[in-house]
Amino acid sequence: MAERLEKLGIELVQDFLFHLPLRYQDRTRIYPIGSLNEGQEVLIEGEIENATIVMRRKRMLLCTISDGSGRITLRFFHFSNAQHQGMTQGKRLRCFGEIRRGPQSLEIVHPEYKVLSATSSIPMENTLTPTYPTTEGLQQRSFRRLIGLALAHVNELEDLIPVEVQQQYRLANIHEALRTLHNPTPETNVSAFLSGQHPAQRRLIFEEMMAHHMSLRKLREQAKQLPGIAIDEGDRLYQKLLQQLPFTLTNAQQHVIKELRNDMQQSYPMSRLVQGDVGSGKTLVAAAAALYAIESDFQVALMAPTEILAEQHYQNFSEWLAPLGLEVSWISGKQTAKERRSQVENLLMGITHIAIGTHALFQADVQFKQLGLVIVDEQHRFGVDQRLALREKGQQAEHYPHQLIMTATPIPRTLAMTTCADLDYSVIDELPPGRQSIKTVALANDRRDEIIQRIQSICDSGSQVYWVCTLIEESEALQCQNAEETWELLKEKLPTLEIGLVHGRMKSDQKDAVMSAFKQGDIHVLVATTVIEVGVDVPNASLMIVENAERLGLAQLHQLRGRVGRGTTASSCVLLYQAPLSKNAFKRIDALRKSSDGFEIARIDLEIRGPGEVFGTRQTGELRFRIADLSRDQHLLPDVQQAAQAVLTQTPDVAEKLIKRWIHRADDYSKV
Ligand code: ADP
Ligand code: MG
User: Fold this and answer.
1) 320-373: per-residue pLDDT in tens?
2) Does residue 181 lie within any of the structural domains?
3) 565: Cβ below 6 Å to ligand 1?
4) What is the CATH number of the domain that holds 473?
5) Is residue 271 part of a domain?
6) Phi then psi for 305, rounded to 5 degrees?
7) Does ligand 1 lie within 6 Å of residue 282's CB atom?
8) Taking the CB of residue 243, how many other CB atoms lie within 10 A of it?
C-alpha cells in the first residue's frame, strides 16, 4: 500500500489531505431522464421496458428504461445470464453513470445499477461523492476510507495563511475547507461546488496559486544569487547603430533598452521577459542588448523558432552589425557539415560576435568562447523548464549568461506575471510612428475571384501581397499541396505578376531564394504556408489573404496579420473562411476585425480558450495545478500575487512550507 501511495506522492498523513478530489459525483438526487444531457454523470431511476441480447459486432445486452419523462438505453458488453434474467419488464432500476449519445438515443454504458424492490427503498446519498486521482490497485472506495482516517487529524494541520491575510481576502479556514472538499455535507451548495465557486474551494485554490507564485518568485530570487557577468563597458557600438538607422527609437523601445542595460550591469544573470505587440520593434531592442554584451567582449546567441526567422535575423543583424565591424554567424540544421564546422570553430575561437539560429544553436558541438547573453525570440511556448534548461546549457566556466526572452504574442499582464513570475518583465507598449492600421475583413470562400482582382490593382500600385494557405488537415503534406495549387491558380489568373511560393517542404536554399526575392520586391505575390507566421518582415507588403481563417487560433491570426501594416501604406487583411462559421470561429474573426491591439486580442483569446490551451500548461506539465484552474480562477490572480508577496517578505519560512505543501519535488523548479 505504501508503495502505491508513494506513486501518488503520498507519504505523510498531510499528503492525503492535500490529495484533492478530481471531481465529484452527485448522487444526492435523481434526474428526470427527459432532462439529461450528454456528458453528465448522474443518478436516474426508471422502469424496465425491455432487456434483450443483441448481436452487433459484439454480443451485448441492451436494456431500456423509462420514467415517464423520457427513455434511455443501458448498454452492457460484459454481463452474466443472471443479470439479464434479473431485468424483467416492469422492474425499477436505479442507475448511475455517464450519459452518452448512442446510435438511437442517449445511453449509459455499464452503469452501476441496483434493482429496486417494491417494498424496500434504497436511501439516496446526501452528499456529493468525491472521485480521487488514484493508481492501479487502489480503488476509490478504499482510498476514500484512507482519506477519512486522515481527516480525523485535520485539526493538527497548521494553517499556513496568516490570519490577517485570511481576513483581508475573506478566505475560509484550512480545516473547514479541507473537510468540506473531501466530505461535502448535505448543506453544501451543490451548484457552487460543482463550478468551483464554493468558499472552501476558493480557499484552497487561493493557497495553491500562492504556492506556485511563490515558488517562481523564489526561483527569481535564487537566480539573483548566481554568478553572472556585469557588463559595463559603455555603449559606443549601440550609439553607432543608432546613427546608422533610418529612424529613431520609440520611447518604449528606449525605455526597455535602458532596463536591459541596467539588468546587464548587475553581477547576477539577467532573466527578463520583453513583451511587445507584433511590429513593436523587438528585434532592435534585442540588437541593443547584444551590442552591450559585445562591447564588453562577450558573445551573444540569438535563438529563433524557425529557420526562416533565423535567416531573416541573420540578414538584419548582418546589415546592422557589419558596418560596426562585427561578425555574425548563422548556425542552421541544414548547413553542410563543412560550413557548420567553420561556423562552430569561429564561435569557439571568439571570432564570431553573435550566433543566430534555431535550436540547432544549442547542440553539443556548438560552443562559445565567452557567451554573455542568450536571446530567445518569438518562441510561442517557452516555459519555466525550458528557461532553466537553457540557462544550464549556457553556463560558462564560472558564470551564467544573461537571458532575454521576447514573446511572440502578448500575454495578458496578470497571467504573464503568474506563469512567468520567475522573470523580470517589460512591455514595449508603443508602435513605431506612422504605422497604418490594418483593415481586416472576413469573406466567404466563394468571393475569391474578387480578391484576385484586388491583388492585381494592389500590385500595380507598387505594393506586395501575401497569400497564406493554412492547414486543411493536420498534415503538412496537404498544406504544401494546397499552397502549390493556389500558386498555379494565381499564376494563371495574374499572368502579369510574379508569383512566388514558399512552404515547409522546400529545401532551405530554395526557400531563402524566394524569401529574399520577395523582400527585394522581385516577387509581387508570395503564396506561403504558415512558415511565415512569425517574425517575417517585409514592410512593402500591404495585403494579406488568409485561407481557412476559421481554422486558426486567434493568436496565430494576429501574428500572421502582423506581417502587413509594417510600412507606411494602408494595409489590409482578408480572412477567407468556409461558411458556416462555428460560434468560436465567429468570435475569433470578429475580435480580429474589431481590434488590432495584441494585448486585447490575447485577453479575448484567453476568454475563448482558457490558459491551459493558450500556454499548453497542462499539456507540457508546466504549472500543474491540483485544484486551481487558471482560466476559471484568473480573477483571483491580483489578490494572489499581493498575498504571496506579503507572505514571502514577512514570513519566508511560512512561504517555504506553503510551497512544500503544494508542489511536489519534481515540479518545484526552485529545487532543480
Ligand atoms: P517585432 O516586434 O514584431 O519583432 P520587428 O522588430 O520585426 O517587430 O520590427 C518591425 C519593423 O519595424 C522592422 O521593419 C523594423 O526595422 C521597424 N522598426 C523598428 N523600430 C522602429 C522605429 N522606432 N521606427 C520605425 N521603424 C521601426
Ligand atoms: Mg520579431
Assistant:
1) 999 999 999 998 877 788 888 888 899 888 899 999 998 888 887 888 888 999
2) no
3) no
4) 3.40.50.300
5) no
6) -75, -25
7) yes
8) 8
655 CA distance to ligand 1 centroid (A)? 42
Please state the domain count of the chain. 2
Using a pLDDT cut of 70, give the percent of the chain over it: 93
Instruction: Please report which ligand is nearest the Cα atom of 435.
Output: 1
- How many angstroms does the Cα of residue 173 sit away from the middle of ligand 1? 52
Question: Nearest ligand to the C-alpha of residue 249?
Answer: 1
Describe the crossing of helices 554-561 and 598-609 by its angle, rounded to 10 degrees: 160
Our answer on whether the CB atom of 357 is closer than 6 Å to any ligand 1 atom is no
Is residue 252 in contact with ligand 1, taking CB distance under 6 Å? no
How far apart (Å, rounded) are the C-alpha atoms in residues 441 and 72?
A: 47
Q: Is the CB of 280 under 6 A from ligand 1?
A: yes
Domain boundary among 565, 595, 625: 595
Whether residue 600 has its Cβ less than 6 Å from ligand 1: no
pLDDT tens across 571-604, in order? 999 999 988 888 888 888 999 998 888 888 888 8
* Long-range contacts formed by 323-328: CB under 8 A, 24+ apart: 323/240, 323/244, 324/237, 324/240, 324/241, 324/291, 326/237, 326/294, 326/353, 326/354, 327/351, 327/352, 327/353, 327/354, 328/352, 328/353, 328/354, 328/355, 328/356
For residue 94, what is the domain's CATH number?
2.40.50.140
Phi and psi angles of residue 211, each rounded to the nearest 5 degrees, phi first? -60, -45
Ligand 1 neighbour 540 (Cβ under 6 A): no
Ligand 1, pocket-test mutation among 537, 540, 571, 599, most atoms within 8 A of CB:
537
Integer Cα distance of 445 and 449 in angstroms:
9
Distance (Å) of CA 589 to CA 128, 343, 445, 560: 41, 44, 14, 13
In a domain, 310, yes or no: no
> Is 133 part of any domain?
no
pLDDT tens-digit map of 93-117: 999 999 999 888 899 999 999 888 7
Distance CA 21, CA 39 (A): 19
Question: What pLDDT sits at residue 474?
Answer: 59
Query: Per the structure block, which three cell numbers stand in for 319?
Result: 546589415
Q: What angle (nearest 5°) sits at the alpha carbon of residue 379, between those of residues 403 and 377? A: 50
Could you report the per-residue pLDDT of 120-152, keeping only the tens digit for each?
677 877 778 888 988 888 888 889 999 999 999
Ligand 1 atom with minimal separation from the 284 CA? 6
Task: Give the structural domain span for 534.
Answer: 438-595
Instruction: Using the structure block, give the residue that is written with the C-alpha cell 559606443.
Output: 236
Q: How far is CA 12 from CA 4, 8, 519, in A?
A: 13, 11, 63
How high is the pLDDT of residue 363? 80
Taking the centre of ligand 2 as the mean of its atom positions, its distance from the CA of residue 471, in whole angstroms, is 23
Total-model pTM: 0.76
DSSP string spanning 172-235?
A: PPHHHHHHHHHS--TTS-HHHHHTT-SHHHHHHHHHHHHHHHHHHHHHHHHHTTS------S-S
From the CA of 277, which ligand is nearest? Answer: 1
Pocket of ligand 1 contains residue 598 by CB under 6 Å:
no
Find the DSSP H helices in 8-152: 13-17, 81-86, 140-151
Taking residue 371's Cβ as centre, other Cβ atoms within 10 Å add up to 24
